[in-house]
Amino acid sequence: MNLVLLALTLAAAGPDPANWPLQPRPEVVRGFELPAKPWLPGHRGVDLTGSPGQPVRAATSGTVTYAGLLAGRGVVAVSHGARRTTYEPVVPAVTVGTPVTTSTVIGHLSGAGSHCSPATCLHWGLIEGKRYLNPLSLLPDRPVRLLPLSSTPATAGAQSIRTQAVHSTAPPPPQPVRSTASPPASSSNRTGAIVVASTAALALAGGLLLKRH
């Protein structure tokens, strides 16, 4: 009777905001890696660092639809509409059909069958129908992934403008200097001048001799 009243109360109040299944907020040691094809390897959930015996809490409100061993590991599943969250390896503290609210303790973390062996971690999953989703998407304070900085077209354009401006204001290259001096006289020209001068001198001397005679 009490379970029925609690379920009706949850339905009337609406869904609670999601929360981390381990407290205090754990470290994500491995993120969600959805494979390109269903049959390919991947990581269909996230691994949260923890310690053996640590309380595991429901990340969302809902109803426990599985609590027991699965492939040798303790698993608890909480369904809320078409979605269900899964937690493993867990020693269940609830039974199938139990309604839970966000942060209700549903079990304790087991050191056996851990994805992070020899360390201990909680594998937290989210499934909608047959699709695996990233459970971190449930959290209002989910980790933010920073993207690497990259050059944008606007930046490239600005760089081009700056380059053009530098080229447009740069002084023109120096022009070759042309000499205005007359080229030196060749040896043949000098020889001709000497011959002319000698001839003139002889003619002058001959004229003087004629006058004396």
TrEMBL record:
Residues 42-135 form the M23ase beta-sheet core domain. Residues 157-190 are annotated as: Disordered. Residues 157-167, 177-190 have a biased composition (Polar residues). InterPro entries: Dup_hybrid_motif (IPR011055), M23ase_b-sheet_dom (IPR016047). This is M23 family metallopeptidase.
